[in-house]
């Protein structure tokens, strides 16, 4: 039986955003045809894991999945949150995959969330935990979220394919609504910070990454500092890997981040081609990461391309006020986010391109989504 | 002409994001989807690989099962040791030339 007020979608695309927006707007969703044409139909393990995570932090919700996993019905309940939670994110996607929805849900929970997440801390598909710690959490202060309750601690790291990392996340719950931001001045880059990591490989590799990256940055700015975080033994997880996360800080406090990781392919990809691929050298990785960061700087905007989706969702959820933000070129993910926001909140952003700086200004009126869970108690 | 361009561009971008194109793709499941169920029998015995390949060819915006990934991968990185390229973003840094 289909509920008349249930939103219907097809395909597994933007699964996370749909689940999060459904929960925050208390709208039931039905997703059909999930990979129905694929050799392995239905939800993937990481999506199931996300459902389990939502199940863990909320109450009075229903999740119905059919036998093959191609059809999902979700009726959201109340986000409870709480302390001492634990979740195994598995080894199919990085912890970054789970952090973005978790932060959004945590803000609208009944109690602050304190959760321990296990899995892959750095991989190529998802934003690394370092990017989260250095950039994403700081983004929330533009929406009136106090930084005191926000914390991400990296207890141990894990690279694909076997993972073994562990992080501890604390997200505060907000009182009523998020503040609508007026955030258009990107400023100038005043310094570059970063963290390089290595798990189960020589500590020397990190110096090689940093040396290469600094070589690129030296032409632009002298204030570059990249910390090292070498992990060996049990805090280094179960697989070898190395990588770097870089952040460009501007005079107005905007943070632009990139990360790059080198490791063996994850469990999903191993089945497709058995040969171990040639890995990028630390020097090339450093140059690659530095070039990516400069590319982000050249794009302009108050956030980097990775955070566009999160920025738009936060704007749409904020208090009934006008938000104005400026970003670089819209990414496909950002565009899809705008569409999803339109489906769930029927909010349309006014999008104005600025041909002089190649940036895009987005204006929207917030929906004043309040933290209902906290009120019900 | 620049203002003219701007006025022409801005509805386009709104259309690009919210245009009819998008509601067809992933909005409320459209009629075509229901038709699919009945005509599925012919497709049923096709090897899965074929279907997958045709999917890969279409752009990720049209693929309803596209990977959920917030990171954006640029097709290729430019060589940032190039002098022209360096000068093009020089003024985005505090070390740039601000006397102009």
Short recap of the structure:
The complex is a heterodimer of chains A (377) and B (100). Chain A is α+β, with helices and mostly antiparallel strands and 377 residues long.
Describe the fold and architecture:
The complex is a heterodimer of chains A (377) and B (100). The mean pLDDT of chain A is 90. Among the domains of chain A are: 1-79; 189-299, Dihydrodipicolinate Reductase, domain 2; 304-373. With 377 residues, chain A is an alpha+beta fold. Chain A contains ten helices and 18 strands. Chains A and B meet through strand 1, helix 1, helix 7, helix 9 and strand 17 of A and helix 1, helix 4 and helix 5 of B.
Task: Summarize the amount of helix of chain A as a percent range.
Answer: 25-40%
As a percent range, the share of strand residues of chain A is: 25-35%
| Largest sheet strand order of chain A | 1-2-5-4
The mean pLDDT of chain A is 90
Count of separate DSSP helical elements of chain A: 10
Question: Looking at the structure, what is the overall shape of chain B?
Answer: elongated
The CATH topology of the domain at 189-299 in chain A is Dihydrodipicolinate Reductase, domain 2
- The level of helicity of chain B is 40-55%
List the chains of the largest interface with their residue counts: A-B, 64 and 49 residues
Please write out the topology.
The complex is a heterodimer of chains A (377) and B (100).
Chain A: E1 7-10, H1 15-25, E2 29-32, H2 45-57, E3 58-59, E4 62-65, E5 72-75, E6 78-79, E7 82-88, H3 95-107, E8 113-119, H4 129-139, E9 151-156, E10 165-171, E11 182-183, E12 189-199, H5 204-217, E13 224-231, E14 241-250, E15 255-263, H6 267-270, H7 282-299, H8 308-317, E16 322-327, H9 332-345, E17 350-354, E18 359-365, H10 372-376
Parallel strand pairs in A: 1-2, 7-8, 11-16, 12-13
Antiparallel strand pairs in A: 2-5, 3-6, 4-5, 8-10, 9-10, 12-14, 14-15, 16-18, 17-18
Helix pairs in contact in A: 1-3, 1-9, 5-7, 8-9
Chain B: H1 2-18, H2 20-26, H3 31-43, H4 48-57, H5 83-89
């Amino acid at each position: 039986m289909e509920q008349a007020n249930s939103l219907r979608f097809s395909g597994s695309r933007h699964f996370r955003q749909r689940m999060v927006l459904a929960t925050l707007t208390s709208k039931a969703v039905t997703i059909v045809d999930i990979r129905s044409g694929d050799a392995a139909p239905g939800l993937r393990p990481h999506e199931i894991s996300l459902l389990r995570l939502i199940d863990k932090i909320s109450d009075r919700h229903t999740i119905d999945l059919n036998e093959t996993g191609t059809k999902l019905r979700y009726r959201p309940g109340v986000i409870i949150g709480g302390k001492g939670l634990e979740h195994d994110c598995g080894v199919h996607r990085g912890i970054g995959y789970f952090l973005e929805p978790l932060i959004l849900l945590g803000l609208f929970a009944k109690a602050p969330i304190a959760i321990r997440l296990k899995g892959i801390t750095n991989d190529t598909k998802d934003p690394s935990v370092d990017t989260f710690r250095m950039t994403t959490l700081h983004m929330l202060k533009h929406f009136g979220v106090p930084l005191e309750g926000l914390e991400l601690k990296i207890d141990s790291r894990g690279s694909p394919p076997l993972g073994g990392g562990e992080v501890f996340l604390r997200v505060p719950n907000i009182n009523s609504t998020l503040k609508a931001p007026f955030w258009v001045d990107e400023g100038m880059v005043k310094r570059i910070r970063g963290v390089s990591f290595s798990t189960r490989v020589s500590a020397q590799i990190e110096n090689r990454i940093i040396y290469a990256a600094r070589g690129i940055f030296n032409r632009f700015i002298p204030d570059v500092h990249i910390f090292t975080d070498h992990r060996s033994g049990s805090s280094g997880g179960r697989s070898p890997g190395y990588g770097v996360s870089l952040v460009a800080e501007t005079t107005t406090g905007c943070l632009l981040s990139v990360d790059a990781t080198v490791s063996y392919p994850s469990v999903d990809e191993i089945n497709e081609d058995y040969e171990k691929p040639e890995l990028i050298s630390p020097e090339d990785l450093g140059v690659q990461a530095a070039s990516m960061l400069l590319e982000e700087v050249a794009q302009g905007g108050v956030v980097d391309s990775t955070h566009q989706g999160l920025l738009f969702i936060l704007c749409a959820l904020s208090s009934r006020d006008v938000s104005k933000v400026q970003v670089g070129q819209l990414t496909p993910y950002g565009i899809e986010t705008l569409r999803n926001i339109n489906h769930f909140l029927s909010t349309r952003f006014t999008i104005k391109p600025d041909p002089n700086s190649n940036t895009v200004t987005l204006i929207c009126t917030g929906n004043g989504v309040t933290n209902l869970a906290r009120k019900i108690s | 002409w620049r203002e003219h361009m701007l006025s022409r561009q801005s509805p386009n971008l709104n259309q690009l994001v919210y245009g009819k194109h998008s509601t067809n793709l992933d909005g409320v499941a459209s009629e075509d989807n229901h038709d699919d169920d009945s005509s599925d029998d012919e497709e049923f015995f096709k090897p899965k690989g074929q279907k997958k390949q045709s999917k890969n060819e279409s752009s990720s915006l049209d693929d309803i099962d596209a990977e959920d990934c917030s990171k954006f991968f640029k097709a290729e990185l430019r060589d940032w040791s190039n002098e022209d390229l360096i000068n093009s973003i020089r003024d985005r840094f505090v070390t740039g030339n601000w006397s102009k």
